[in-house]
Structure formats: structure tokens, C-alpha cells
Amino acid sequence: MGDVVLKAELFEQLARVGKALGSGKRLELLDLLSQGPRSVADLAATAGLGLTTASMHLKALREAGLVATTRERTTIRYRLAGNDVAVLFAQLRTVAATHLAEVVAARARYLGTQDGDDTEQIGREELLRRVEAGEAIVLDVRPVPEFATGHIPGAISIPLEELPDRLSELPADVEVVAYCRGAYCVLAHDAVRLLTAHGRRSVRLAEGMLEWRLADQPVTAAS
């Protein structure tokens, strides 16, 4: 029979990870870091946090072993501590959506699909087939820093906020397949809505960069 004190200590250590995950903003930071390494300033700006608050959340994630740091000259860049952290984050979303109706409803409101999805989606295999056949091009609508840390090979980078003014950069005779961070990211939905409103053939990748990486698909980083 095991020592109850030592057993309690063991489970308290396991709980450190759970406690670190017990914040919506920390989960958002993990979502951003699943795209690739980022500086504190970049993470804070994207997540709508002050530098001090972002640093505090990152410290909690680091103390739980979920993120690590790398120094590049005078800049400290945060990254996920391992691919298993990305798997954990993705699985957390799946479990939450499976067992909490509120998660499904909140996601639908955020993506604008509560009255039905108004954007067509395709999977990875169909994306690759259409690109190989010359039927489609791939459009990455994430912010430039995220594109730079890793993107689908051959993708064109046009951040969503720049898309209205840069439509002419996209060939008019092929379909546009837009993608963003992942299945819980609204950017690709909004891109397809915008492109469709301008008479362009467009669909979105059903998932995004997080799922693409977890599926061990090839990733290109900006040089």
C-alpha cells in the first residue's frame, strides 16, 4: 500500500499543469505559441494584454513546464516546450467541446456560424489535390510574424486586415483556399466571406496551422 502523503504530493505536482491551464488568456497564449516562437511584446499585442500581464501569464506557463524560452540577442522568444504541449492543447479543446455545450455555442458565436456555416470548407487531402492539379492557390491570412515562423509550403501571405486592398495580388482564374491558426480561428472564415463578396471563388481549410503541424505535414519558415 502506497504512502498517502507521497501520493498526495504526486497529484499536487500533476495539478501544476492543470492550474497553469486554468486561465483563458493562458490558453490563448498557448494557441498563439502553437503557431511558432514569439516575443513577449508580440504575444502581448496579439492577445490584447499589457506587457506585465503577458509576462506573468508566460511565467506561470513556464513554471508548469509548458513553455520554454530562447534568447536571440536582446530578445527573449517563447515557444511551446514540446510538440506534446500542442497535442495537449488540441485535446483540451476536443474534450471541452465534447462535454460542454457552452463551448460549442461560444465557438459558433465567435466564428459567426450560429445560424449555419456560410463558408465552404475542405480537408487537407483535398487541398493538396487541388493545388497539385493547379485548381487552387493557398492563402495564409494570419499576421506576418506567424507566417514567418511557419506556413504551408507555397502559401501566399496576406493578413486579413490587408486583404481588401490586396485582392489584385490573387490570380482571378483559380480558387483561393484560405487558412489561419486552427479550427477555432475566425480569420479564414472572414477571409472567405470577403473573397466571396468580391466575386472570388474561395473556400477555407477545415483546420489550420496547429492541426497541419500535428499531422506532420511539411512546413516552410521564412528565411
UniProtKB/TrEMBL annotation:
Coiled coil stretches, renumbered: none
Keywords tagged on the record: DNA-binding, Transcription, Transcription regulation
A Pfam family reported for this protein in Swiss-Prot or TrEMBL: HTH_5
Limits of the Rhodanese domain: 132-221
Residue ranges of every copy of the HTH arsR-type domain listed in the record: 6-100
Alphabetized SUPFAM superfamilies for the sequence: Rhodanese/Cell cycle control phosphatase, Winged helix' DNA-binding domain
GO molecular function list: DNA binding; DNA-binding transcription factor activity; thiosulfate-cyanide sulfurtransferase activity
Family annotation (PANTHER family): ARSENICAL RESISTANCE OPERON REPRESSOR ARSR-RELATED, HTH-TYPE TRANSCRIPTIONAL REGULATOR KMTR
Name of the featured protein: ArsR family transcriptional regulator
Species for this entry: Pseudonocardia cypriaca
Source taxonomy: Bacteria, Bacillati, Actinomycetota, Actinomycetes, Pseudonocardiales
